[in-house]
Give the backbone structure.
Amino acid sequence: MSSTQTNPIARSVASTQSEMTEIILPNDTNTLGNLLGGRLMHFIDLTGAMAAYRHSRTNVVTAAMDHIDFIRPVHLGDLLTLRSSVNRAFTTSMEVGVKVWAENTRTGSVVHVASAYLVFVATDDQGHRQQVPRLIPETPDEHRRYEDALRRREHREAESARRKEGKLATAAMEDAAAVRP
Ligand SMILES: CC(C)(COP(=O)(O)OP(=O)(O)OC[C@H]1O[C@@H](n2cnc3c(N)ncnc32)[C@H](O)[C@@H]1OP(=O)(O)O)[C@@H](O)C(=O)NCCC(=O)NCCS
């Protein structure tokens, strides 16, 4: 990342807020008539990317879908509403939270069905990483999400380091076994 690619602007969480509504059709469902988990993840990815685009104003790629809770099934014919916003911006990456509700069109009841955290990385048209603007949390909820996003990043980094150490130890054991007569 070169210094010419820096983006000094700071943006509010509110300016990243995004929303998408979908009607659940037969093509989206399994044999029980419930929304497929993979289809829901696709909608979550798209809504998350909208918030990341609004914050970075660059191309973005999904680096991780970090955590997802499928809380309740979504049924054929339900209206699905997804809302996203950036929780925290780091150097070239942004953590985005997505929350999903399903509305029964007959009764009008609305239930929270899923929540997820994703990490997007900003890139230019050549795929080079770009620095993202700072994020300014304003409300108490935005401050809480901002702090929680840092904890999740630290946890992700610790997990990644642990996995790397595990792989190195396995490779060393395999090498040692290979040279034994
Ligand atoms: C995501 C990607 C750009 C990271 O590139 P990289 O060269 O490994 O970058 P680095 O390890 O230097 O990390 C760059 C940033 O991404 C973050 N990052 C990288 N991998 C991550 C992961 N698995 N989870 C969360 N954050 C991650 C780093 O924390 C860092 O953030 P920062 O700049 O804000 O500190 C690269 O792995 C990639 O292109 N992956 C494929 C993306 C893709 O195809 N997605 C699906 C379709 S959009």
Notes: The chain has a mean pLDDT of 93. The two ends are 48 Å apart (CA to CA). The first helix runs from residue 37 to 56. Residues 61-64, 90-93, 119, 121, 129, 156 surround coenzyme A (CB under 6 Å).
